[in-house]
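re: ur question from yesterday

yeah so i grabbed the chain u mentioned. its 189 aa long if i counted rite. heres the sequnce exactly as i have it in my notes:
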Amino acid sequence: MFTGIITHTGNVTKIDLNNNKLYIENKFKNINIGTSVSVDGACLTVSDYDYRSITFALSEETLKSTIISNYNNETVVNLELPVTNETLFSGHIVLGHVDDIGKVNKIEIVKENTWDFYFTTPNETYIVNKGSISINGISLTTNLLSNNLFYVSVIAETFNNTNLNSVNENAEVNIEYDIIGKYVHKLSK
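ran it thru and got these structure tokens back, copy pasting raw so excuse formatting
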């Protein structure tokens, strides 16, 4: 489990779709094989590492359900280690189970050091106004506009310390809807 508070960004050093392997520069240094890492919001397991890079084995489901197959060398990804007993829980519950691939519709500079990112999603069922959502693993607050369109307001701290500063309009993003909303929706059926 994660919080959506991104602690590091790193570059993809290699993606091998023939062997379902992803290599990302090692920003953690002290990491163990078997550790879960949120990579742009997708929970991946460390299969190997050295001082330069971390290797992740990818399932076909992960490749189908996330933006990982779009990566190339030098793609910047958001990274977060899992919650521990000592972790400050300051985001929201993020499982690392990507629900949908969304698209950046528009990026608007509101004023200095504040941006609004507009997204389209294939499914607005779990989006509520002022609710929680994970975009590329980042814990954000939703502002619902209309069918399948919502935006999030981003401050400089988030913009400067995540890959939102390298995302362009029409880019695809990983979306994980709030787990509490998904359970409530399931129980209400």
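noticed a couple things. The two ends are 26 Å apart (CA to CA). also The chain has a mean pLDDT of 93.
anyway ttyl
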